[in-house]
User: Fold these one by one.
Assistant:
Number 1:
Amino acid sequence: MFGIEFVPNEPALKIGYMAKLAEDVGFDTIWITDHYNNRDVYSTLAVLSLATNKVKLGTGVTNPYTRNVAITASCIASINEVSGGRAILGIGPGDKATFDAMGIEWEKPLTAVKESVSALRDLLARKKITGHGMNGAQLAFKPGEIPIYIGAQGPKMLELAGRVADGVLVNASHPSDFEYAVPLVQKGAADAKRRTEDLEICAYTCFSMDKDRKKAVNEAKMVVAFIVAGSPDTVIERHGIDPKDGKAISSAIGKGDFGGALGAVSDKMIEAFSVCGTPGDCKARIGELMDTGVTRIVVGSPIGPNKEKAIKLIGKELL
Ligand code: F42
């Protein structure tokens, strides 16, 4: 029921050590984020394939813009091979801010994800594909069974995930976001005449746990500041936060004033955008999330003030 996310902003060997620890304390899935400015997701997953024995290993999430889908198929199939069949492909529309920096246009993201999942299903079944801009691409080796999850927040993307994916990774931490998201995923599944029970609905949370609540909250603040800055007003308002307070944070981040951004993070923002606090606090929030129809929890950044200690504590108290 519990997965964990690692951001490859540290050397892959260090993440390999954390991943083994996470496996040992009882996590069953490890997700690695994909942004061009961090270590490469597939190199990291290759290291994790060798460092661990039984956890599932996923891209959390890649996108159809920075990598051609035929390359994505080849990369994840290679990870599936080296890990002994433990790969999962997480794919989403990608992070607009990093695309701007790379000079990549974010054209028709919904269509791009939809077509990519269809092409990936064919490529992973070793079919020769035409369409999707391809002209007969086909893998030359057997990929094995690889589930495909979609990273989604918007209403159409959530429905698409329900229609075509094996699971959905929703980047949110509050029950009200899932009261909104779960019915949309279920509607997509119903439209495609699929059983909702066959679909994993994952809360891909901002998580911070420590025996000392204050320390846990302090650690979550910067991640929450970035979430608030990147969230549309509709999401901010859903949590009873004034969009002006959100704008103040994005403007501080835009100016490089990270102290100012941290100072503007309110308790209400922490409550809305993270699973945070003592083991008891986190347990209570996880219960609320599961009540909305969430089937799995992903423990995401920052995990805790001291990652290694937090992983052990989560293992002892929650898993
Ligand atoms: N992004 C990354 O780049 N790297 C990561 O490691 C990563 C991890 C991650 C994990 C979980 C998760 O939920 C998201 C994650 N993301 C990551 C972010 C992800 O890639 C997306 O940026 C994020 O999920 C936001 O996407 P969204 O679901 O809100 O979709 C956007 C594109 C959106 O606007 N969706 C609309 C909707 O209603 O869902 C649909 C827009 C639409 O219909 N577009 C039309 C189309 O065809 O695409 C075109 C409309 C027109 O007028 O052109």
Note: The CA atoms of residues 49 and 209 lie 27 Å apart.
Number 2:
Amino acid sequence: MNSRTKILLIYTGGTIGMRKDLKTGALKVFNFSKLLQRIPELKQLDCEIETISFHNPIDSSNMKPEKWTEIASIIASNYSEFDGFVVLHGSDTMSYTASALSFMLENLSKPVVLTGSQLPIGDLRTDAKENLITAIQIASLQQNNKSVITEVCLYFEYKLYRGNRTTKINAEHFNAFASPNYPALIESGVYLNLKSELFLAHNPAMDLIVHKDLDTNVVILKLFPGINKNVLSAIIGIPNLRGIVLETYGSGNATTEDWFLNLIEKAIAKGLHIVNVSQCTSGSVNMGQYEVSSALKQIGVISGKDITTEAAITKLMYLLSQNIPFGDFQTVFETSLRGEMS
Ligand code: ASP
């Protein structure tokens, strides 16, 4: 590691910095400077660390696009000064934030590593120290004075994942995240095992572009046997709605009842973008593989392929803010922009 490597640690909140409210017993966020005092090990790392904190740190259940913009703006305004960024974040919505940031930060030449923990940093059995220390070490990795990682990642429980491929799978285990359709980029054991062939490549001719606008006129709709016409028409009729992430069965299948297909067809005709993602954790949408998905393909439903729901909804928010002509939208969505789909 280069001793001059500079890392900016951005604290947004989450369990990592929480402590128990003595009256209620519930976990609450607390002051960031106190958090750092609890990790004297950080001083031993061979890099310079500066810190910046949200004015009011949050439980990540309160995360929202304005706060993603805040994180992206902090990274943008400190971009030239630092070699890497580590974002401390609650685990509940970390995959959404990692996905959103991956679209908002185009042409990254430096790492943005999100991490957090299942137990507060002050807890005796905490997972926070390992997650934080290794996330910083990974963000500091340099080769020929250039960052080794040039994408938005998520580090948790000995694995570095591409952020927009992750999903939170467990509310109790330290191993809280999975990347079902893309392998881990780094595994941490006695050595850091880098799978460089999986990393997103950076084009040195391209400068960072920060996209701060996201369109939140979107919804996620999970199909279930018994969903009825009133429910679907109410959702499609939401004023100003522009996009739906439709969580379908298996490889992108849905009911073929007339009322359903007619409503979806009408929604697309009135300008809505409908993205088909699978309710299955692993595997890909493949419209046309079964008869029950052929009609969706014909009426212009977009294939989310093997994208996660978290990446699909944030990609929709991002692309809807980009003034893409309606006729081009499907092709752009179905193209992998930041390695979010195969
Ligand atoms: N509720 C917490 C949060 O997401 C959980 C965590 O940090 O792991 O902020």
Note: Residues 243 and 316 are 7 Å apart (CA to CA).
